[in-house]
Amino acid sequence: AKDWFTERQKLQKQMENEPLFGEFKGKNVLVVQAEAFQTFVIGQSIGGKEITPNLNKLIGQSIYFPNFYHQTAQGRTSDADFLTSCSMHPMPTGSVFIRFASNSFDCAPSILKSQGYDTTIHHAYDGSFWNRNNMYHNMNYDRFYTIKDYTIDEPIGWSLGDQSFFKQTVEQIEERNITPFYAMAITLSSHHPFKLPYSNQELNVGELQGTILGDYVQAAHYVDSAVGALVADLKDDGLWDNTILMFYGDHDNSVYDWSLYERLFGNPVSDLDKDRIVRQVPFFIHLPHDEHAGVVDKAVGQMDTTPTMMHLLGIPTDHRYLMGISMLSEAKKSVVFRNGGFTDGQVYFVPSADGVIANGTCYSLSADGAETTGTAACAAGAESAKNDLSVSDRVIENDLIAKFRKEDAAQ
Ligand code: GP9
């Protein structure tokens, strides 16, 4: 496993000579992890209205990755947090937050704290859920703001509506008055089963009315309006121009009735589309100035988030134990899913239930679409995906990063 990381660290070194490395040194970072927020709602309209008008507008002002994939497994929201913050795969069963909360990892808050950042995490729910209290302590956050720190003045779903959640989160950050800050905000209003109060249902979802996908679309629209209000708040408070804002979805919505999606899109959904719809969540980076804004089509995944942040902030990662690579780097790598599937932007592999590579489905991707091809075209990538997952599992199960660090210190 150590050799695997030595090779990965060589690829991570590459970003130090690439454009944008350190261009935003010392800037604040605000990360928004949005509950069950998927890519298919971006740019989509229903009843003549955009589902996500604010995020659609943000595309033109951000670096936007339409081919960003979540890589979560049974640990759902906690897996997304672990993948993006600590740049390792989730476990095949359970949640790393619950099973391995005292192990050593190189997570974003501890890296940034070592660089003088104030580090906070904000989630308006019970601090013990997903064992967050323990895991966040291990991740070296200065403070975890839980439901106890919020006034429930907009009750929605499990707790507080995202609009008020964002507003109070910005107030909490401002009250600390410590810069630079790294803050992560985890939303909740779009949690399954997506039932918003009537007054928050602003869209006319037509024939999806009364269906779970109709409710999901209403919830996504509400989250989008909360993001619009957050952006306005950051601008009003003078934070917009000195803060990197990252926004991404944590995992899919668990709605697998494809006839509902066909009604929404107005066309049939292929098997490949089904797999991609379930795995694609949007990823936005808004930088303190807009000159690098654009759509980047490359295939990237949640575990690339912390390396990307370090790239922008100019913090080397070539001595860290991170499995991802900056999304802004030219270094090549594929996005590996917990089920053994992967994509590198050229091919997309969907494994079979028995895990035998030859029994899986390999698609070759092109600008015009996708077609199935022999599994030989995916075989090397699928072997490498298996190996990556096994390295990650061994490192986590045996707390190997602690051992690697000792070895590094002795050298
Ligand atoms: C609860 C929230 C939801 O705190 O993070 O987690 P999920 O059920 O989506 O994994």
From TrEMBL:
Substrate binds at H191. It is a multi-pass membrane protein. Mn(2+) binds at E35, T77, D250, H251. It comes from the Bacteria. One of its GO terms (cellular component) is plasma membrane. Its main location: membrane. Residues 27-315 form the Sulfatase N-terminal domain. GO terms for molecular function: metal ion binding. The active site is at T77. Pathway: Cell wall biogenesis; lipoteichoic acid biosynthesis. It is found in: Cell membrane. Keywords: Cell membrane, Manganese, Membrane, Metal-binding, Transmembrane, Transmembrane helix. Belongs to the LTA synthase family. This is LTA synthase family protein. It comes from Cohnella terricola. The chain holds residues 251 to 661 of 661 of the full protein.
